[in-house]
Amino acid sequence: MEYLEEFQDRFWVEADERVREITEKFEEKINKEAKGTLGFTNWQAMAASATVGGTLADTFSTETRRELTDRFQRIVNETQIARLNKMLKVLDEDILESQQNFTYVVIDDLDRDWVDEKVANDLIRCLFRAVLDLQRVRNLKVIVALRTNIFENLDFGNRTGGQEEKFRSLSLHMRWGSAELRNLVGSRLRIASTKQGVAAGSLSDVLPRTNPTRGDAFDYMLERTLMRPRDIIAFVNEAFAASQGEKVTWEHIKNAEDSYSYKRLLALRDEWKTSYPDINRIFAVFSGAVIPMSRESFTRRVDDAALLLADPDFRGNEWLSYATTSMWSNPAGEWADWYGPLVYLLYGIGFIGCATGEQGVTRYVQQFPDFAERVSNIEATTSFMIHPTFQAVLDIRLDGLRHR
User: pLDDT for 109-155, tens place per residue?
Assistant: First the structure.
């Protein structure tokens, strides 16, 4: 308690090195001895004011001033470190000494603007190291919820001295099944109904009946998600908004799909724009595509995407250059060598699916997360699909017809 009272409002030590002014003064005095009379040489012309045998002196002076300010924040002194280690021991042996006091700490919202982007990844890596240290406390579990794109950007290998394997061994990739998402939406519906003072209903009470052509309404909506709660909740909310308080019909769902698809594509862009600036311009290359796309059709569109490197306004030169290196530098390479990196990227973020064989099932990253990691799988892919989530906004056509 003494420790907490002492440092609760000043745990971090902040030190400033204030203004340091550096002045550089350079003076050069040039003594010019005129060795002749006017008109003999250019040098003598410059020294027109000097007499024969006289001296001409010019002084050149430059002065530079600059302000250097270094702010060292959140530096914990050596004494603090020792006391922290002691606090971990106290926490383990005296505060959470019993399994009856087992405690979970959940850290979320690390994808929000909580700190300057320049240091966000550094702080998250430090957080992970702190979580590893806290494993010493037997009856404490710290859970960090982190989006996949942020986790992949942490650059463990270059910055953590071989800690990547340790961090990844403690990670659990969250995946949702259709039954879980159905139960989730059903639970939210019941709670919302109760708050509105109406009888708690089920999904079947508010969604249209099964259609012989389109099938189950909830399954239809779920197929147009990346199998995440945020997606299906957004789609259901759009359908409710389209119904304007009436029972949701198939027409409402179809009307809601255009708006939902547009917003989901924006969300996909926002989710990955830090790692892949201007990736939305890659998405736009596939606008109006006919699906399934043959390898030849897909290749033409990816070639168009690669040409964005010639656009001076394109901000993704670094990552797109890396993804297309083999196209430019390996003319003897196989198709998978040239286009594999972009297939891996677009598949991994959920934008495309891959099918093998004439009647092959289309695979998406939600169900087959490791498919595009193997070159043999990319080589075996014969056709590509735009994920149903984004087909409406990109005006994707199926066999010459619009997506629906």
Answer: 888 878 777 788 888 888 888 888 899 999 999 999 988 878 877 76
Residues 6+ apart with CB under 8 A from 284: 394
Locate 111 and state its tokens. 């994808």
Examine the pLDDT at 38 and tell me if it is beyond 70. no
Region 318-338: what's the mean pLDDT?
Answer: 90
The residue among 162, 143, 153 whose CA lies nearest residue 123 is 153
3 state DSSP class of 119: helix
Quote the tokens at residue 117.
């982007």
User: In percent, how much of the chain has pLDDT > 70?
Assistant: 77
Closest to 315 measured CA to CA, from 285, 269, 340, 281? 281
| Structure-block tokens of residue 258 | 């255009």
User: For residue 21, how many C-alpha atoms fall within 13 Å in the half-sphere facing its CB?
Assistant: 5
Q: Are 368 and 396 in contact (CB under 8 A)?
A: no
d(CA 88, CA 245): 54
C-alpha angle 149-324-273 in degrees, rounded to nearest 5: 30
Q: Give the Cα-Cα-Cα angle 195, 178, 209 (nearest 5 degrees).
A: 70
Dihedral sign of CA atoms 240, 244, 246, 251 in order: negative
Going edge to edge, which strands form the sheet with 381-386?
Answer: 293-294, 381-386, 352-356
- Residue 113 is which amino acid? D
Please tell me the pTM assigned to this model. Answer: 0.72
Give φ, ψ of 44 to 5 degrees: -70, -30
- CA atoms of 321 and 317, how far apart (whole Å): 6
Q: What is the pLDDT of residues 61-70, one digit of tens each?
A: 555 554 444 4
Q: Which two tokens stand for residue 71?
A: 């702010």
